[in-house]
Design brief:
The protein is of the alpha+beta class. Strands 1-2-3-4-5 form a 5-stranded antiparallel β-sheet. The longest helix has 38 residues. It is globular.
């Protein structure tokens, strides 16, 4: 933050208020984008025919970057779940999970890191599932439309 509110200066309070509004708008936009991207990925995975599940879950894919660890599970009830752990120092924090049943949790302080790592998740999906890019074609085509 460029200025801090020390003496109760009205200009500092106005700037801080503006930053709160802008920061919250940005976080909400990033959160919506995370939800949209992950929802599409999970629905594509759910439509894939994978290996047989033993017990309750089957780990479909797992990947790491310097900042995040992603895991996707196929559940016995046919749903698919994604979890993301964000690294903070020497520990990983379970900071995001979403499944095809509509359940979703996200850590407010980690939204930006998760958002920044979405391209890594998409690249992982392209490597893992041969038909992934073909299944995304209608969405990619729609991205060129202007309203």
């Amino acid at each position: 933050m460029s200025k801090t509110l020390v003496r109760g200066d009205r200009m500092d309070a106005q700037e801080m208020t503006r930053q709160i509004v802008k920061g919250q708008e940005n976080l909400e936009r990033m959160k919506r984008e995370i939800f949209m991207v992950v929802e599409v990925l999970l629905l594509i995975i759910k439509g894939q025919k994978g290996a047989k599940r033993t017990r309750n879950t089957q780990k479909v894919i797992r990947s790491r970057s310097d900042q995040c660890r992603w895991e996707i599970f196929s559940l016995r009830d046919g749903s698919v779940s994604l979890r993301c752990w964000v690294k903070k120092g020497n520990i990983s924090i379970n900071s995001f999970s979403m499944d095809t049943n509509g359940n979703c949790e996200i850590g407010l302080g980690l939204i930006e890191t998760i958002h920044d790592n979405l391209p890594m998740l998409v690249a992982l999906m392209i490597r893992q599932f041969p038909t992934f890019e073909r299944e995304l074609e209608p969405i990619i085509k729609a991205s060129t439309k202007e309203f």
